[in-house]
Structures are given as C-alpha cells and as structure tokens.
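Lecture 7 notes. Example A: sequence first, then its structure tokens.
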Amino acid sequence: MSRFRIFKSIVAIAGVALCLAAAPACAADSAAAKAKSSPQENPAFKKFIDEGGRMEFLGNSYGVDGWLLIQKDDKISTIYVTPEGGLIRGGLFDPAGLPVTAQQITAYKARMNGSQGAVPGAEKGGASKAETVYAQVEKSNWVRVGSKDAPYMYVFMNVGCDHCQDFWKKLQPSVKAGSLQLRLVPFGREDINRDGGAALLSADKPGDAWQQFIDGKLEALAKDKIKGDALERIDANTKLVRTAEIPGPLPFSIYRKLTDGTVTAIVGEPDNIMVVQADLMKNE
C-alpha cells in the first residue's frame, strides 16, 4: 500500500486540531451534511465507492468517525464524519497536538498484518455491525484460557450448555499445544449459568475450573466460589448478549482472522473446526 502521509495545515475545530489537505477525497456539501456516516447511506461516500474507491473504518475519537479512503490507483486520504454527518478532510490531532490519525493508521496496518485488536472506538458505532460487536466484546467480561501469546477467539457460553462443553473438548488440544487462546465470555440468567459463570470469572485458573466442571466436579464452579463483583459482571455480559443481538444457538464465537483482518462470527459449533484453526494460524 502507498506510504501514508500526515497533513500539516492545522485548524482548530471543536476543541481538537484538525488539518485540512488538498488530497482527493469526498467533499462535504449540504446533502452529505445531513447523511449518516455509513458508506451505504452517505451520498459523498457512495459516489466515491461507485467510482472504484474503497473505505476502511479507522475508529471513533473525539466524537468523530475516521475513515481511510483508498482510491483505485491506491492513493489514500482520510476523512472524518461528525455526529451531524458533516465531512472533514485531513488528519485528526488530540488537544495536545499529537496525531490521532497516525495512531489510527498504525492500528489499521497492524490489523492487516495479524493484530486481532478491535478498531479503536468502534464500540460507539460507525463501523460495520461485526466491528462494533467485536469492539464491545473486547471490553466485556471474559477469562483467558491458553497462552497469552496465542491467536484468540471470543466464545459466548453458558457453563451448563452441552454444546459449549463439546466445543471446548474439540479445541482443548490446540489450547494445550499453545497454538490457540480462548477468551470465554460466560453469561446467563438461570442459576447454573449465572452462578457458574460468576465462579468462572472468579477463578484463579479458569481453564482448570472449567475442565473440572465438565468432568463432573460441579463444586469447581459452585456459588461459594464467586468473588467480588463477579455476579454484576455476568449480568453485564447477559445484557450485552441482548443489546448486541448475539444469536443462538450456543456457543457463539467471534474472532479476527489473521489471514485478512476481517471479523468472523460463528453461531453454534462450526461444521469444520479446522477451518477456524486455519483462520487463526499465524503466518510465520
């Protein structure tokens, strides 16, 4: 991809410094000012895409949605969308004058090269549904099972769900081998799922506690194992399932592919677990 450029002409807008560039981009007009930030709904964005351009969401900072505009000749520019739909071409700086756009582009390039982190600020909206949910999940209450350095996937589960337990058994060899990390997101209203999930969030070694529970040692995730605010955190996860419209049946898995940086979601147990493992395989 072409070398990224940061533009230097600075103008103060809404308490942050924004630089305006003359590089080709979508200009703001009265119609665009009323449009939403979605590329499908914003007339200026739609024109750009129809002409062969491509757009990548950079994140939301200081109340504006950032987009990377890639023309069909690979020239790039950045544009920011205000909550009212106004368009501002150029780079975004924070109140101290540090380049937010540069940080956003660095994060974007990292995602394209294997980083699995969420788009900064995507949980606030503006991104695709998948990116928005992924960012919300990243900020949810989860426990890590497996190597912290391994590629990861988030798995929404009920501790009393047979399919969730079967899914764990299929992935366990990869987790033990250090090639996969699971980030379990327990939730549920029934006592076994709410109390058991809270106990899982409280466990010093959640992977061991989960395995013991599956092996029939139900006391491993008993109510007396709950610590601190774990019940409140379980309830927050349950609320997220509702507000983000996480579909069933369980387990529900979501991850960012290492191959191309896209977010992928799987409802229920996947038909071919090897496809999932290939998506999360590091390219050495």
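Example B, a different protein, same format:
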Amino acid sequence: MISVEKDSLQQQMESFLSRFRQLNKAFELNDQSYSEMEETIGQYTAFIVHPDHEAAWGAMPEQTMHFKELAEDLRQEACHCVWAMEKHRARAWLENRPDIADYFHNIEDCIEAEFQGAGMNKHSKVLMIGSGAFPMTPLLIQRRTGAQVVGIDIDAEANRLAVQVLQKLECREIQIEQLTVDQLSFTREATHIIFASTIPEKFDLLQQLHDLTNPDVIIAMRYGNGLKSLFNYPLLEVSPALWTLSEQVRQPGQVFETALYRKSAAVTAFSSARGEFHGSC
C-alpha cells in the first residue's frame, strides 16, 4: 500500500480547494462547467474514501489554525459544488439527459445502508431536512418502504426542481415544502427525521426539534468525521438530557456515515420497562 505523506495530503487539499472555487464561480456564471465538476467530485470522493489518506489524516499532529481553516473552506466549497451538481442533475434528468456523477452513485449506496439501521417501514412518516434539487433520499425511501415522506429545503430553486422531478415521475406520495421545522405541522407526526450531511446548522436544529417532535422519533444524522469531515459536517456533542446517541451506522468506503438519536427520556423509559420485565420473569 502506498504511503501518503502529511504534506502531500495538505497539498492535495489545497489543490481541490482551488479547483472547487474556480468551478463554483464558473458554474454560477454560465452553468457550463458541470462536466468538469462531475469529474472533480468523482476524484474528490475517491480522495475522501481512500484508506491511505484516512491513515495520513489520523497520523497528523495537532492541526494548525491554517490547516483547520483550509479544511473548513474546502468543506464549504465542496458542499457548494454538490448543491450545484444536484441542480444540474435535476435539470439533466428533466431534459432526459442521463449523465450522473460517481458521487451520486456513492450517495445512493449510503442511503441503502441507512434503511437497515433506522427501521423504516410502510407505516413510517419520514421528514427529510435538506432534500435538495434531486430528492434521492425521499424517492428511495418511498420506493423501498412505501412510507409517507416530506422533504424540506431552504433553497427555493432546489425545491422548484424537486417538485418538477416528482411531477414527471407522477409521484404523489412525496411532498416538498419550503418551510422550517417549526412551521411544518408534519414535524410532530414524523416517526423518522433525516438530516442531509451538508447542513452546517444541523445540531442547532436537532436541539430545536426536541420540543417539536413526538416522544419516539428517530433522528438519522448524516455526518463525516476525520477525513470525511472534508465533505460533511462532523458530529458534535449534544445535551444528554435531550438526546441519546443510540447507534452509529459506519460505512467504510462510503462518503458519509449516520448517527441515530432518540430522545433521552424515551431511552430511559425503554430501559426501565425492560428491567421491570426481566425482573418479573
């Protein structure tokens, strides 16, 4: 296995940052850079999941301020590129152009793995926060389980494209709303809530959701730690009085992982009930 030096890792990060900045600027001007964006996203995905690169990241000493700023800037630009590519993918599909980046194949593989951990079925009511312009997660959930799914996103253009995609598919079982979690009545009905990994404020929203949701709701928080944090916002500490991390769906070789949270009160009640049951046997 080829060893990757720490300096080489940082140089590759700086190279990707420069490329993403140029591509994002070009895409905003004329929407003609998508082919190069697809290629770069594919290369970046391979860079993120490469085991040698993860080992080099783990071997680094305490990160300098410059390195932390580099990582944050790179994540922001990479996420911006993904948002742009989702819009391009939606437009391309609506125009019957089948082009698709390897990144999206990777995402679809990650979504498949989430189904097993979150326990969704036809009776579930699923809220997707950050559903995007091409609503892959809502579509796959509805197709696999028959669950009722609502997607929300703060991006008006992404919502408009997502609605057009669903209309073309004649999929009436999925709703797309441009509402916040506190404005959406479905929030309290949801049995499962999924966060896109590219939402910076997802842990602020998680805290807000505690008082807006039912006692047994399951939160599926997509994240990336370590090297994967260059493509996803990482896990943060949560108040143990509000939420308990019940499971982590780890996916080596995939671009993000998933943390499952339950309300701490519900976890305590379940543990107490199980103890009483075993005690009476």
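Note on Example B: Residues 206 and 219 are 8 Å apart (CA to CA). The beta strands are 125-129, 148-152, 174-177, 192-195, 218-223, 243-249, 257-263.
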